[in-house]
Amino acid sequence: MEIIENGFVFSDQKELLKIEAIHRYLSTESYWAKNIPLETVKRSIENALCFGIYKGGEQVGFARWITDKATFAWLCDVYIEEEYRGLGLSKKLMALMIFHPDLQGLRRYQLATLDAHGLYEQFGFSAIQNPERQMGIVVPNVYEKPVP
């Protein structure tokens, strides 16, 4: 899938992804993946359904779904470079992703966000029902190097 709108290219083609740009953003600017190693980013991309936004050949946005393409999908690592925010790019990306053929008919779509609830609510996301049924293992600061 590839859509061109207002000079921006939206694509699910992994060969277009700028891995170093994605790593730079995630490891230095995101609140959720600070210091993530490049090899971890590469592996995460290899095993996910990924989407990029490009302008003039540069990566300006990214998102990926962890999914079995049958029952479940977890949306993560969504970002738009700061200088391109406020242009509706995240809304356009969400609209394209939520209707992607590999994500149809799933039983559950999930994500976690600190500050973008309003965006995701526009696409049907809401607070988890029955959160007491959900469990997880959280490893805080997993990418931090131990102090010698």
Automatic annotation (TrEMBL):
GO terms for molecular function: acyltransferase activity, transferring groups other than amino-acyl groups. Gene3D superfamilies: 3.40.630.30. Transmembrane segments: none annotated. It comes from the Bacteria. Residues 1-148 form the N-acetyltransferase domain. Pfam families: Acetyltransf_1 (PF00583). InterPro entries: Acetyltransferase_Butenolide, Acyl_CoA_acyltransferase, GNAT_dom. Keywords: Transferase. This is GNAT family N-acetyltransferase. It comes from Pedobacter yonginense. The lineage of its organism: Bacteria, Pseudomonadati, Bacteroidota, Sphingobacteriia, Sphingobacteriales.
